[in-house]
Amino acid sequence: MDLAPVFVLAAAPARGSSAGEVLGASAVGLVAIAAVVALGVAQRRRGLLDPLCRVVEERMHRPAWAVIPSAVAGSFLLVAVFGYYWDVSWHIDRGRDPGAFANPAHWFIIAGLDGIAFAGLLAVLLGDERSPHAVRIRPGWYAPVGGILLSLCGVIALAGFPLDDIWHRIFGQDVTAWGPTHVQMIGGASLATLAIWVLDREGARAVGDDGSERRADVVAFDVLAGGAFLIGLSTLQVEFDFGVPQFQQVFHPFLIALAAGIGLVAVRIRGGAGTALAAAVMFLVLRGALTAVVGPALGRSTQHFPLYVVEALVVELAARVAGRDRQITVGALSGLGIGTFGVAAEWAWSRAWMPLPWGSGLFPAGALFGLAGGIAGGIIGAFIGRALLPVARPRQATPRGLAVGAWAVVVIGLALPMRPSLEHDRATIAVGPVHDGRATVQVRFDPPDAVDHARWAHVLAWQGAKHGDGGLELIGLRRIGRGRWVTEHPVPVAGTWKTLLRVHTGSSMAAAPIFLPADAGIPAAQVRARSGPVALVREKSILQREATGGSPGMERVAYAVLAAIGAIWLAAMGWGLRRLDPVVAPRPVPRSLATRSDGLTV
After folding, report:
1. Is residue 7, in this structure, part of any structural domain at all?
2. What is the predicted pLDDT for the residue at 593?
3. How far apart are CA 3 and CA 53, in angstroms?
4. Residue 557: its pLDDT value, please?
5. Dihedral in degrees, nearest 10, Cα atoms 296, 107, 77, 292
6. Which of 116, 153, 328, 491 has the fewest CB atoms found within 10 Å of its own CB?
């Protein structure tokens, strides 16, 4: 057995970062806050950035408070999304870190979230009276709605970093993207894509150019924003992308259909013919590039991603049939098509590309969840796209309570399968001879038909690489008799690998350890690979081995706080989009601002 990796793992803390790292990060954060405050004071009192703003507005014919923050936020979003997928693959392959700043991916995430928050605050600092949708802060200072939304996304996401360390100190490290503080950071960065889109439309309206004409630059920005929004909506699929989900498989078709409905419908209504398909292509190009860079280039496990092409074609067809001015009808028809034809296409795509293909065990629940997600997403996407349309574009009458009903479907679709059950099946494993730290494993289930209709039944080996590539393996099971299965090839049973049998049937998600290394940081003893009967337990107890401490009550409180943050985000986005929608009469631009002193006509 290789003892060096075991030593490295044992040295990694399982309950938050060291005091030195926390103090250092806090000091840097305080300095950054002080710098932003100083910049704000200098700008509002002495117009520090006015020369730059004049140059930008002369060249771009847009308010500086829209152009500069959008460029800053967009650039840092790329940094954050790269760091995010690198970080996930890093933990999947290598396990936890010796410290928060020992993982290079964390630097990209921190820098990205810092940049998003700074961009939002910059938009607020530069705001003026030209936006008809702006919020008055004080005489002469109006904050654009998009800037407020971007600030909210960035600041709340950035706050997730210190809260994440507190969470780890209380509960231990939760190796899942769906932890409360992780969702807080991921959600903030994801919704920032929509905030940038709102800010751009608000800036265009401020100068009387709301995109009524389909110019190439306007369409290009809509495709760029819509594709980025689709990428943001897909981030919480990440555990399925790598093949280590810790929640029921019905989430996968639901999340894909929901993202497709919201993102593709919004961009098609806002951007016009062809933009849904173009946004899907942009998604594939960028996610493909991330897969190539994070995987082969950096030596990490391969990430996968949905196709979205069939869903985009469905949206294009629905918009052509219903007409672009019937936005809600387009959303409903698109959602129906996404929930049927789109889900069927993703079903086939999963069997060709995804690490955990959708099989007969997922039917009919997966199809029903996908249909619900598609319809709800299509309706929500229609409301978003309608708010972003040119002011003069006709609006379809909205049935009362339709948006609330769509969001209710989303909440129910996320809540119902959130807590998996446990079927108390048992198994007997037989470990073959060990060669080079690997062994073939035979499994006999009791009852024998326990996995006949499983959504997945395989051996997972992960967190086995401390250097180089190869830290994740999904080893299938091959039937050799009634209730008897054997691994398709030898599995790791030494080193730092965590190897376990996983069985997902119905709502039950169970697992049994095959080999787990000793870990003094938890602390936890080694589970040696040996033959004999094993009990299937809740797989979370093995996948999140480090998550010890706290209490169920405290954990429920934490998730309740996360739900409250999510509600604030959604309410803020709804408020911003409603304020942007011309159904609400915009505040007229003061006559004195019709032409600025620098000659920019507004």
Report:
1. no
2. 39
3. 59
4. 84
5. 0
6. 328
